[in-house]
Automatic annotation (TrEMBL):
<dbReference type="InterPro" id="IPR027417">
    <property type="entry name" value="P-loop_NTPase"/>
</dbReference>
<dbReference type="Pfam" id="PF00664">
    <property type="entry name" value="ABC_membrane"/>
</dbReference>
<keyword id="KW-1133">Transmembrane helix</keyword>
<feature type="region of interest" description="Disordered">
    <location>
        <begin position="1"/>
        <end position="67"/>
    </location>
</feature>
<feature type="transmembrane region" description="Helical">
    <location>
        <begin position="90"/>
        <end position="112"/>
    </location>
</feature>
<keyword id="KW-0067">ATP-binding</keyword>
<feature type="compositionally biased region" description="Basic residues">
    <location>
        <begin position="14"/>
        <end position="27"/>
    </location>
</feature>
<feature type="domain" description="ABC transmembrane type-1">
    <location>
        <begin position="92"/>
        <end position="374"/>
    </location>
</feature>
<keyword id="KW-0547">Nucleotide-binding</keyword>
<dbReference type="InterPro" id="IPR003439">
    <property type="entry name" value="ABC_transporter-like_ATP-bd"/>
</dbReference>
<protein>
    <submittedName>
        <fullName>ABC transporter ATP-binding protein</fullName>
    </submittedName>
</protein>
<keyword id="KW-0472">Membrane</keyword>
<feature type="transmembrane region" description="Helical">
    <location>
        <begin position="231"/>
        <end position="249"/>
    </location>
</feature>
<feature type="transmembrane region" description="Helical">
    <location>
        <begin position="202"/>
        <end position="225"/>
    </location>
</feature>
<dbReference type="Pfam" id="PF00005">
    <property type="entry name" value="ABC_tran"/>
</dbReference>
<dbReference type="InterPro" id="IPR036640">
    <property type="entry name" value="ABC1_TM_sf"/>
</dbReference>
<dbReference type="InterPro" id="IPR017871">
    <property type="entry name" value="ABC_transporter-like_CS"/>
</dbReference>
């Protein structure tokens, strides 16, 4: 019958291993720390204590991340509470159920007292029926509201998780490339899963849990006072001990919870990076090194996990002892009152029952505080993402230039750019123009700033100086989606979706017909090898386990770009990583793709250079030479040297 407070029972601050049985709003008793699979990542033969060793030092940044939780719980709560908008009426309804259930419990105990004093002590069956019927009715009512409250609370909590995850995920997708270079992918995954759930503990479950524990406490305490105010007063003197115990544990639990969240992210990162790099691991015999890396993170997790479990176990046991002390005080006082004929046995039993019911919500209130404190560790990590600013934004509504039919004139006018946080400028005074259908090739030494040009053209960043324009319109004046519809990027690494070949091509233009997809594949010289596969266009491919060669994957990407049919094309090292034969096979479809489009090709491979209308040579972020292939060879400068070294001259 009892509705339990959300987050009231769990040992606070759990991360990964709370799932899949993570705390639900009501009624699910959380496994105590000691019951969790502590050994999941642990090496049984190793002692529990962390043994730092060569190569196992943490960076200062990581150490700081593990140990310095800053955000106050109420600030975190205030940041996430707006996400409950739309569900607040359900929260109110859940609270009504919670209050009704607590009332039903109170009534049941009073009826129990009545039954003991009249039906049992007087041995009268006639005195049994009426209170028994009422008790049963109250029990049924309590069960009904308990069920309704629990179901609604789980639904509301999960909706909150859904909404929060969508919000964070949506935000992450707008963040600039350097954000992803600075955060490990596995850690971001962990933030989007484990940390999102931790916030739910604080917001939805936290609110309902507090209401539940508060009302239960008030009802049971009122009833206990009503039965015997003097006895109640004497026993409540001990209640602040619960609060003191919770206070004592709060700070340490937050720190441990944070360590656990960080360790969760680190483990996911190591596993993901190792699996993504499996060829390197196997080819360079890095198995032992990778295992060591995982063991190091797993030990950090285990340390935090064991510390968390010990902490909550210690808290639980301390609370048990305080409870026992209170119950003994009641029995002692009650025995004395009965011996003086000032109390009936029914009253004493009902009183003891009230205390039995009263202590859990009081204890829950204390523990709830700890759970909230622990959840702020997850909140900090999510706010780290949510507070990261996208590098670019759409122009304000009404200020954007209306879409037009793009001809494809691309201009860089004295562009200067520095990556956020970088000391040096990456580009300075870069100017280039490519008219509709022209082919401009950008080359230069590694690190000269070539790929940065493509990032500015796709508007991943805005230039610090000068401007980048499409058909004369500055990029920041048009909607981002419009720009990216009209400028297709074929990046250095072939981007493959985890889906069929058909879907991989079709994502170039949603809504494309099968005929158009096949035509694009034909133009990209991909149709023949696709149809030779047993499942043809329906063959599933995956970025890591693709059954296709690098050149074939590149041709799938070319087919996608063909289908996109944008007037401007940016090719970033389209033949890098391909052997000579594959590169040659890619060149013809590439030429077909480029034909009739403005093409900016960034490359070290100068095989296509004679076709270029103009060549720009970048050096340390500046244009050092510009001209046609012939002109630059005749100049005998950087280009001639690069060309010579490529052709073994
Ligand atoms: N996110 C970043 N933050 C700071 N500096 C960066 C970032 N990305 C790139 N850089 C720096 O900017 C410079 C130019 O990088 P870019 O990738 O444009 O060079 P590139 O000419 O394309 O090199 P490569 O031919 O090797 O691909 C490099 O010195 C690089 O270290």
């Amino acid at each position: 019958m009892r509705l339990r407070a959300i987050g009231a029972e769990p040992a606070p601050g759990r991360g990964r291993h709370r799932r899949p049985g993570r705390p639900r709003p009501y009624g699910r008793h959380q496994p105590s720390g000691a019951q969790r699979p502590l050994t999941e990542y642990a090496d049984h033969d190793e002692p529990y204590a962390y043994e730092g060793g060569a190569g196992e030092e943490e960076t200062a940044e990581r150490t700081a991340e593990r140990t310095t939780p800053q955000l106050p719980a109420r600030v975190a709560f205030r940041r996430f509470w707006p996400l409950t908008r739309g569900d607040r009426r359900w929260l109110v309804l859940i609270c009504v159920c919670v209050v009704a259930a607590a009332l039903a419990e109170t009534a049941a105990i009073l009826l129990f007292s009545n039954l003991t004093d009249h039906a049992l002590q007087e041995g009268s069956l006639s005195a049994f029926w009426s209170p028994a019927g009422q008790w049963f009715a109250v029990a049924v009512l309590g069960a009904a509201v308990g069920y309704a409250g629990n179901s609604l609370a789980v639904w509301t909590a999960e909706r909150f998780v859904l909404r929060l995850r969508a919000r964070v995920f949506g935000h992450v997708q707008d963040l600039p490339p350097h954000f992803f270079q600075r955060h490990r992918q596995g850690d971001l995954v962990e933030r989007l899963t484990g940390d999102v759930e931790a916030i739910e503990q604080m917001v939805v479950s936290g609110v309902v849990g507090t209401v539940s524990a508060l009302f239960s406490t008030v009802f049971f305490a009122t009833a206990a006072f009503w039965l015997r105010w003097d006895l109640a007063l004497a026993t409540f003197v001990l209640a602040p001990l619960f609060w003191l115990a919770a206070r004592r544990f709060s700070g340490r639990i937050k720190a441990v919870a944070r360590e656990e969240r960080v360790a969760d992210g680190a483990i996911t990162s190591v596993v993901e990076e190792s699996l993504g790099n499996i060829v390197l691991t196997q080819a360079y015999n890095r198995k032992a090194a990778e295992e060591k890396r995982l063991r190091r993170e797993a030990r950090a997790w285990m340390r935090a996990s064991v510390a968390g479990a010990r902490m909550s176990e210690l808290y639980e046991q301390l609370v048990e002892v305080i409870e026992t002390l209170c119950v003994l005080a009641v029995i002692g006082l009650g025995a004395w009152e009965i011996s003086q004929d000032r109390m009936t046995i029914g009253q004493l039993l009902a009183f003891a029952a009230f205390l039995g019911y009263l202590y859990p919500p009081i204890r829950n209130l204390g523990q709830l505080g700890l759970t909230l404190t622990a959840a702020t560790a997850g909140a900090e990590r999510l706010l780290d993402i949510l507070d990261a600013e996208p590098a670019v934004a759409d122009p304000p509504p009404g200020a954007a230039v209306a879409p037009w039919r793009v001809h494809g004139t691309v201009e860089f006018a004295r562009v200067g750019f520095r990556y956020p946080g970088a000391r040096k400028r990456t580009l300075a005074q870069v100017s280039l123009t490519a008219g509709p259908g022209e082919f401009v090739l950008i080359t230069g030494e590694s690190g000269a700033g070539k790929s940065t040009v493509s990032k500015l053209l796709l508007r991943f960043y805005d230039p610090a100086e000068g401007s980048v324009r499409l058909d004369g319109v500055p990029l920041h004046a048009m909607p981002l989606a419009f720009l990216r519809e009209n400028v297709t990027l074929l990046p250095q690494e072939t981007l493959i979706l985890h889906d069929t070949i058909r879907e991989n091509i079709a994502c170039g233009r949603p809504g494309a017909t099968d005929h158009e997809i096949v035509q694009a594949a034909r133009d990209a010289a991909a149709h023949d090898f696709i149809t030779a596969l047993p499942e043809g266009y329906d063959t599933p491919i995956d970025p890591h386990t693709a059954q296709l060669s690098g050149g074939q994957l590149q041709r799938v990407a070319i087919a996608r770009a063909m289908l996109r049919n944008a007037p401007v094309l940016v090719l970033d090292e389209p033949t890098t990583g391909l052997d000579a034969l594959s590169a040659r096979r890619v060149v013809r479809p590439l030429r077909r793709l480029m034909s009739g489009r403005t093409t900016i090709m960034i490359t070290h491979d100068l095989n296509l250079a004679p076709d270029a209308d103009r060549i720009l040579v970048l050096g340390h972020g500046r244009v050092v030479e510009t001209g046609t292939h012939r002109e630059l060879l005749a100049l005998g400068g950087t280009y001639a040297r690069l060309h010579g070294s490529q052709n073994g001259l």
